[in-house]
Structures are given as C-alpha cells and as structure tokens.
Design goal:
4 helices, alpha+beta, 10 strands, six-stranded mixed β-sheet, 41% strand
Length: 193
C-alpha cells in the first residue's frame, strides 16, 4: 500500500502549479506617504512595498479607500482598481495576502471594512462589515475579481484563496463581472450597490 501511494504521488502532472501565500503590510509606518494629508478631510496617499517588485497604492479620500498595484505609483494609479470606489465609507486592513504560483504573484487578497448605515452602533455610528476582495495582478490589468463576505462565511479566507487561484489569472477586467463567492452577506451587498 505504501508503495502504491509513493507511485501515485509520482504520477502527478508535471505542469501542476504550486500555490502559496506571503504577506506584506500597508500600515502607515511601513509605507511612504505622498504629499501632506489634507487639512480638510485627512485625505492621504501611501505607497507600500509589495512582493517581488510591485508596490501597493492606497489612496484615501472622503473616508473611502482605493487599493491598486503596479510596478510604480504612477503605474498603479492608471490601473482599473485605482478607479474603483465603494459607495459607503470604507477602509482596509493593513495586511495584504499575495497569492503566488510557482514563485510569481498573480493576485492579492485584502480585508475591507464597509460601513453599514442601516446598522448603527449605540453611539449612532454605522457598524463596519468585513469583506475580502480578491484583486488580479499583471500581466494584464489590475482589478477586483471576487468578493467574499467575512461575516456570512466562516471560511472566508479559504474561499478567497480558492477564488484567487481559480479566477484571477483569466479574469477580464471591464468584461467579466466581479464574482460573489460563498454566502452573500451585508458587506458584499453594500459593496455591490
């Protein structure tokens, strides 16, 4: 039986890819701030080191963030992801998960917090609903591929990795619709409006 298992292991396809994850930080202390924060609303743009060359661009304006990736700040700012805003107030967590196939990053996964104006806390402020966004990386445009509701799905991280591995590289920005993976909860509903 052990010999059969060993032989079966050798029969794996030679072109099978190895997927893995690595992580970088987008915390302000780990990034370079571009310009000075706005005195009016605190708007700020940060450029953070990515994995294997690209940078992560985070721009905040009017309590909403955009996240894009590119070889430089200017390249990241020209990607479709740099033009995507969610309607409700939102922010991102400070950890980016890079999905890697055979040593090359092809997608990122990042946790977003989407404000739910229909669900107020005891102080009358909107509660934040967690969502994971999968974003495809070059070659080709950088854009969102999938959303996974972090509250409606206990296995949201696994679903995000699976979505990245299955959809990101073949996703056609501007043509394909962003997929909702798993159960659709409040965060995804707010993001998809």
């Amino acid at each position: 039986m052990a010999l059969f298992s060993a032989v079966a292991g050798l029969a794996a396809p030679a072109n099978a890819q190895t997927f893995s994850s690595s992580y970088t930080s987008t915390a302000p202390k780990d990034c370079r701030t571009i310009g000075k924060p706005s005195d009016v609303d605190g708007s700020v743009t940060r450029v953070c080191p990515g994995k294997s060359g690209p940078v992560v661009l985070i721009s905040e304006d009017d309590l909403r963030e955009i996240v894009s990736v590119g070889r430089s700040r200017m390249a990241a700012a020209k990607e479709p992801a740099a033009e995507l805003w969610f309607g409700p107030f939102n922010s991102t967590a400070h950890t980016v998960e890079w999905r890697v196939a055979d040593g090359k990053p092809f997608a990122i996964i990042q946790r977003w917090l989407i404000a739910d104006n229909g669900d107020l806390d005891k102080n009358g402020r909107p509660t934040s609903k967690p969502m994971l966004a999968v974003t495809r990386l070059p070659p080709g445009p950088v854009c969102h591929v999938a959303y996974i509701d972090g509250q409606a799905n206990r296995n949201a991280n696994e679903l995000a990795r699976q979505a990245a591995d299955e959809f990101a590289r073949d996703f056609k920005c501007g043509k394909d619709e962003v997929k909702v993976v798993g159960e659709k909860g409040a965060a995804v509903s707010l993001a998809k409006r």
